[in-house]
User: Fold these one by one.
Assistant:
Number 1:
Amino acid sequence: MSPVTSVRLRCAVAGALLTLTLGACSSSHSASPGGAGGSAASSGTRITIKNFQFQPADLTVPPGQSVTVVNEDSTAHTVTADDKSFDTKTINGGASATFTAPSTPGSHPYICSIHQYMHATLTVS
Ligand SMILES: [Cu+2]
């Protein structure tokens, strides 16, 4: 279901070794347990970073909710709010981190401070 072409594009941006299909991107074979790809919807307080994208792109949580961020890439990423209301700092490839959602309702765009073209939104409601 994911747009393969755009994934490949992002790989190209990151690695420049595009030609080898998606395999090049996930070459470091993250030891992701389970590998049950699609429906991680069971826990609604998780952000997954994969292929240089935040998933879901728009997550809604209650105020003060603890949010887990799982980096499934082999590259380090961050989850950093534009307004600095939360910031996981660097999450190494294959690692995870937790942050606390802001206590006031609102919409909080965030980016990866390492790859600033990566962006998504955390909504507190
Ligand atoms: Cu990043």
Number 2:
Amino acid sequence: MAELKTEQIRNISLIGHGGSGKTILSEGILYTTGVTNRFGSIEEGNTVSDFNKDEIEKQISINLSLMNTMWKNSKGEKIKINIIDTPGFMDFVGEVKAALKVTDISVLLVDAFKGIEVGTESSFKFTKENGNGVIIAINKLDTENANFDDVVKQVRDLFGPEVAIAQFPVNQGMGFHIIVDVIKMKQLNFNPNKKGEFVEEEIPAELKEKADIYRQNLIEAIASEDEVLMEKFFDGALTEEDIRNGLKRGLLERKLFPVFCTAVHNNIGVRTLLDFICDYGPSPADVKPVKAKSKNSNNYLEIKPDLNAEPVLFVFKTMSERNVGEFSYFRVYSGKVTAGMDLINANTDKIERLSTVYSLNGKERKEIEEAICGDLAAVVKLKDTHTNNTICAKSNPVLIDPIIFPEPNMTLAIYPKRKGDEDKMATSLHSFHEEDPTFLVNYDADISQTLIHGQGEIHLNTIINRMKSKYNLDVDVVEPKIPYRETIKSVAKDVEYKHKKQTGGRGQYGHVVITLEPLPRGQGFEFVDEIVGGVIPNRFIPAVEKGIVETMANGVLIGSKVVDVRVRLTFGSYHTVDSDELSFKLAATMAFKKGFKEANPVLLEPIYEVDIKFPEEFMGAVSGDVSSRRGRILGMESEGRLQVIKCHLPLSEMSGYSSRLRSLTQGRGTYSRKFSHYEEVPKEIESKIISEYEKRKAEENK
Ligand SMILES: Nc1nc2c(ncn2[C@@H]2O[C@H](COP(=O)(O)OP(=O)(O)O)[C@@H](O)[C@H]2O)c(=O)[nH]1
Ligand SMILES: [Mg+2]
């Protein structure tokens, strides 16, 4: 391994909709290349990639996992392939984004029967944002109703004319094992014994014409962006060398998305896919250098994959494992990392010692001496390093642009079941956030609840299950409280309250007259002292204001904050001996409560501005649902094949929205939201909220 060069590395990510076969493809690659000597399966829970307890139980990938293997290109040179298998469920989209950031090529799997699914569409979109080369594998060609032509058409309609067939199946459906390869111009006859071996045969006469046409299309796709090649193409003068270079460049520059055929669980098509990746896939030396901001000069620099430069590495995932500690997965962008090196975390300015460097195959780890630029590897037990941090030489700290993770779209309130577990819960939530930046936690003082935010129900459930298995913490989750507000709509003039206790000993005396007036939305609170002639001495006035402020914080109707009120203190009286601050505070509190009820009080609720994106055919369902949630549609526009509705929705009507939208749109709808403003709660809903509150209070006081 010591002689490995950056040019000999390929970093690939496996992406696509859940269930399209990504994990089994990684299993097939490891088996074919001799890393493993058995072919694991999802059902038996023994794949290299899905090794976590929750992945085995649920039979889906949840975390990205890193694997690697060696293969040879057609010149006989060794190639190291790093593989990142990603989860297909939208809830774990952060893992896909992290994988795309550090891989140069993505193999996008598409189910040969189901065709384009939500995960196909979204993962392709992410490759576009990130600039990854894409190889399309039409998988499960061994299933009964596999329809290669139809699926390729769907793919081309969606991804564009860059999609070109490199292989087509000869006997798709049950027993599928023969493929025509139009790059090699051979028929590949696979042995269905799962070993993945095949023999090359001449293309049968009846398929020759079809193969020629596809080959022409492929070459045209390669040549189309290049005048010199195009000219040669029309003159029939393209050499094999031209084609090879064109394939390589087409893949790198996203001018070509070649289509391959696979039935990965029978290990058919895996070997040829590997061959193609080794021969035509870009190495880290071929791709555009990553940009990073220099902390010394504040300028952006290009980080070149130069082995002799100072080391720069980027942490794309952290994951803690029982009995081992926290793993940091990284890509080396420049220089090399050797075990025992002291580097700096440019985000935290802390020195980190990389004591041991590991190469990973799922949970199997192997100590390695070094990782060179372009390679993916892991270290364990860094002191204070998290996902998105750049680690580099002390003398020249740089920051690689972070992975942009999606905003959360589901929120729940969380409580420990056992008293006394509060601190433990807070610590564990914090550590989950550090491992997974798409999971957020905060304490909302407004509603006195700890809130957890994530990508959806499965995401949050996974975290709750891990709290149990990892920290033995039992928790309850509920819909968060709604931060209602209370305010008034009319004036209550000259509201009077006299607090007087004058029996035995020193008495209490405070007397205020106040006027309450509504203020425009968002103005909060205003206190006006209009006392003249010292009817209330100056020293008691702050106590009056304090009584009102405290009452407003605790609410009058349902215990929610009172907002947008002006209070004028107009008159009162005092007693030279009995008056004190407390008496005035009490008088003000009572006067405020009384006046508030007289001033036409109302409840306000938070309204969110929500953008909902979904395919057009679901317009009726989505907009109907918005109306049933008291939503107000502000506008509609189309964005490519998608429809976008912008609307105002009350927060109280949004519980479970992320699941609802997915079910309404067959998983294809997404939304984002942000707080907009407060609005009056409709009367019939308001009385329900108030009576529920009063009922609860009465129960508590029993
Ligand atoms: N028939 C058939 N089933 C497959 C093939 N590839 C994967 N599967 C099955 O499809 C299911 C999902 O596979 P998996 O690798 O977990 O998909 P992932 O979600 O994309 O990782 C598993 O039961 C696999 O055994 C294939 O080529 N043919
Ligand atoms: Mg998987």
